[in-house]
Each structure stands twice: as C-alpha cells, then as structure tokens.
Amino acid sequence: MNKVVISGFYGFHNIGDEAILLTLTKKLKDINANVQITVLSNNPEETMQKFDVKAINRSDALKVARVIMGCDVLLSGGGSLLQDVTSARSIHYYLSIIRMGLFFKKKVFLISHGVGPLIRASNKRRVKRVLNKVQCITVRDVKSYELLMSIGVKPEKAKVTTDPVMGLECQPLDAGERIIEKLNLKDPKRKKLAIAIRQKDFRDDAHRDLLVQMANRLAKRYNVIFVPFYYKNDTKIFQDIHDKTDEHVYFIIDKYNSLTFMSLIQNMDILVGSRLHSLIFSLVAEVPFVGISYDPKIENFLETIQMAPVCSIHDFRPDAIEAEISRYEQNYDMVKAQIIHSKADLIELLKVNDEILETLI
C-alpha cells in the first residue's frame, strides 16, 4: 500500500484549497484504490470527515515528522505556497515540510504550485536549494516556471501544468438552486451575477464606496450575489456594505463545501472576481467571468487563457468592469464559446500531473 502525505493550505475553510484537496485525493484513489492518504490540516477532524482521509494537525511538528517518516510520497501543493508577500512564515513552513521529506529520503512531488512573488534574495536561494533536490515539480502557469528558472532551479525538474481544480467535475444544479432560494430573491427571473472579492481589499471608505456603487448599478438589471470563497474573511463584506446596498443585492454568509459552490457558480450568468479560484470555478462551470487583479497569480492565470484583468484592486475601476459586462451581454454566446475552448485546453494540461502521479503511486 502506498502512503501519501499531502501538505498545503488545508483546513482553513478556503473553497479553492478545499477543491484542490478534493481533486488530488480523488485522483490518488482513482490511481490506487488502496492508497493511504494523510493530510496536514489546520482542522484535522473536519478534513477527515470531508475527504475520507487521515489527517493530523499541520502545526504539530512531532506528528508531522512521524507521518512523513512513514510515508512513500510527499505531495506539496497545490496553491501559492512558495511566496513571501503575505508573510515570511508561510514560505519557511512549506520549505520545512519539503526538507523533512528530503531528510527522510521520500519521493517529494511539488504539484501545481503557483510560485512567487519572491521578494527576498535569501528566500530565492532557499527555494533554489530545496527544489533542486526534489523528485519533480509542476507549476500552474508559465510565469511560475520562468521564476524558477530565473533563480536557478534545474529545467529538467519542472513542468508546466494547471491548477488541479480544473479537474473538478460540474455538479447537478439543484444544490446551487437551494442556496439561491434561501436568499429569497425579489425577482427570481432576473439574471444572476456573482461577485467574489477579498473583503480586506475594501476596508477603506473610498474602495468600499466604489464597490457599493458598482453593486447598486449592476443590481438595476441583475440579481447581484456576493459569494465568499474564503469564508473567514470574505463574509465580513456583509457587515461592511449590507446597509448601503439596494434591493437585488444579496450576500451568502453560510458555509458550504466546494462541490456545492461549484453548483452555485453553475447557476450564475456572469462572475466578477478577484479570488483566483472564483475565476477557475467559473471556467470549469463555463460561466463568463471578469477578472480583477490583486496579485500576479491572477494575471498569470488569465494570461494562460489569453485574457487579462480588467483592472486591479489598487486601481479599482467599476466603469471598466461594467463596460466588460456590457460587452459580454452583447456577445454572450461567443464569450461562452471562448470559455469552453480554454477549459478544454487546461484540462489537457492536467495530464502532466496525472502521468507523474501514476509513476509515483
């Protein structure tokens, strides 16, 4: 029996990372029905219940060392684990897990990483030293690959693939319909537009006022629904702007799993998002989307499918977003066809991961 340990940003109620873990565990079980999976999680009990795997506390160094010592393969990823923008601690934590796998002479596979930004020269050196020792690396976009090459990672170590969530299957529409029914839409026949943003980007009055103005203008012709992809943070937007929004603006504040969220997004007509996985969910659901950048990973993903952000959080432009939505309305079938074509291309890229996993497991 192959024993696999998975390390990533798991157990934090982040829909995108939950979806990554779901697709990884499903793929591993498809390859080998007897595989034993242990996830390093912030909430082990919840992870075990949701994904039918073993899980341990990611912060318990002794337990982590024991489980890695007893495994055959260590999977690190996916997601933006190796970056030093959000904090210095993040990159040190994930590198320490990889080092542990190397120390115990395990097969270490970095799967679908979004690498960077790497600001500090010392971190670039650390990443280079560690990654040149692992079994193999796949990255989810070309820019991540180019960054690895620029800091001295050996070309033969890395390949370009895509985000594992591209392997998520579309779901029956009824789960999403039930969420929408709970919102008690005043006019259910209106088209539905989802907004998936990071609440932290709209803490100042100026940005918040622009967001409210945009939502209220869009609500003149859509049911506008704020969707929290990172539950702990994104639901706070409800308290921030609820009293300032007009009718036909709604907020989802309950917790749901990633498959239910996929069903919800499939029920939308358009999505406006700065959360990376809101855009990826939309692509999988074949729902046209407008991207807003807060981090290079948004631009990297959109560039992969020949798109670009309409604006950034730092230069938040509701007029540009609304203009893009109007363009979609006038060319909806064409935009949707482009989405479907891009989806097929990225699903093809996932085979890079599949081939490596089949070799390792």
TrEMBL record:
Its domain of life reads Bacteria
Q: Signal peptide: which range, if any?
A: none
What are the record keywords, sorted?
Answer: Transferase
Q: Where is the Polysaccharide pyruvyl transferase domain?
A: 14-296
- What GO molecular function annotations does the UniProt record carry, in alphabetical order? transferase activity
Kindly indicate whether the keyword Transferase belongs to this entry. yes
Protein's UniProt keywords contain Transferase: yes
Matches recorded under NCBIfam families = S_layer_CsaB
PANTHER family cross-referenced by the UniProt entry: COLANIC ACID BIOSYNTHESIS PROTEIN WCAK (PTHR36836:SF1)
- Please identify the protein, giving its name as recorded: Polysaccharide pyruvyl transferase CsaB
Species the sequence originates in: Fusibacter ferrireducens
